[in-house]
Amino acid sequence: MEVVNALGRRKRAIARIFVTEGTGKITINKKDLNVYFPSDILQYVVKQPLITVEAEGKYDINVNLTGGGFTGQSQALRLAIARALVKINPEDKAALRADGFMTRDSRSVERKKPGQPKARKKFQFSKR
Known about the structure:
Blueprint: E1 4-10, E2 13-21, E3 26-28, E4 31-32, H1 33-36, H2 40-52, E5 59-66, H3 70-88, H4 93-98
Parallel strand pairs: 3-5
Antiparallel strand pairs: 1-2, 2-5, 3-4
């Protein structure tokens, strides 16, 4: 198998991944998955597509992650892994789509408006 690459985005986070056959090692920005995401929940989020298609120990994944916070980064990585798995085996697409891993979550932060402290919050109104 040659190298398969895919892209995943969420909020401001961008995950570019390169998948090769191997032992199941996930390297993010030259760090191990357990070091980059110390939280068990975020590690689980990253591994969800692999667990769904029962490919947890089959592929080595090398990741370039930029932007966003740790939650957005983990979800961007999940999307990228799901897309790469579909490139490798198109028959897995139905199972991944059923669990919601193939859909790009387009929600992002709303911009701040002029004359307001935040996007929707208003300054306190004073009648007098």
